[in-house]
Design a protein that fits this description.
Elements (H helix, E strand, L loop, with lengths): L8 H47 L10 E4 L6 E4 L5 E6 L3 E7 L4 E3 L8 E3 L2 E8 L5 H7 L8 E9 L2 E11 L2 E10 L2 E9 L9 H10 L1 E2 L1
Antiparallel strand pairs: 1-2, 2-12, 3-4, 4-7, 5-6, 7-11, 8-9, 9-10, 10-11
């Protein structure tokens, strides 16, 4: 016999299921709108940030070519020529920084120091030899003579008096060197050359490197 006073158990379950579906659908729509609003708000904030950064002045960035050597004494800064590659070699007695031109290639024989190469490589070296700074004045004095040095002239390196000279043929060919003494360290910028004329295409880069060198 049918009960006209209320719902059957099955009808009650169906009503609960329908209400659950409607509630779940509503929540899904509401949640989707919330996520969409968050994305739009974030995009608007990023746009405002980009516009603000374009208008406001930015601090100048230090060029990556301006390098600092602070791991060993003496500490110094220098400007790396554009596109050149930097490598290092060091011990408790010396620090060598090699700056190789983009076209630099080497074919080292058994004696690594006298490798044959094409292109150019500058060497910044600091050696703890407790040398006297008087060596610079000695090399610049009239009548000074040496087996390999020639075209000796006064220069500056790191704001200090230095001597520049051209090395005549030795075991490793020619060399152009700028030398100074700083706190007992012999500091020099030099290059190994296959011939006297080999430095010509790189002379401007060498002079700029010497001029950029500063002790800290």
């Amino acid at each position: 016999m049918k009960n006209n006073k209320g719902f059957t158990l099955i009808e009650g379950f169906l009503i609960v299921i329908i209400i659950g579906i409607i509630g779940g659908t509503g929540y899904y729509v509401w949640n989707s709108r919330q996520q969409t609003n968050k994305v739009l708000t974030s995009a608007q904030n990023e746009t405002v940030a980009v516009k603000s950064s374009t208008v406001s002045p930015s601090k100048p960035q230090k060029s990556r070519n301006n390098l600092t050597q602070e791991s060993y004494d003496p500490k110094f800064t220098y400007t790396q020529p554009d596109g050149w590659i930097v490598s290092r070699e060091s011990s408790n007695l010396y620090e060598y920084i090699y700056l190789s031109s983009p076209d630099f290639k080497t074919t080292p024989p058994r004696d690594q120091e006298c490798a044959s190469f094409t292109g150019m490589r500058f060497t910044i070296s600091s050696t703890n030899t407790d040398v006297d700074s008087a060596i610079v004045n000695k090399m610049l004095a009239p009548g000074y003579s040496a087996t390999f040095e020639k075209d000796i002239k006064e220069s500056t390196l790191g704001g200090q008096k230095a001597v520049e000279y051209f090395g005549s043929p030795g075991e490793c060919g020619y060399s152009l060197t700028t030398l100074t003494v700083h706190n007992g360290y012999s500091v020099e910028i030099s290059t190994q050359l296959a011939s006297e004329s080999a430095v010509t295409p790189y002379k401007s880069a060498y002079e700029n490197l010497v001029a950029s060198f500063k002790f800290l």
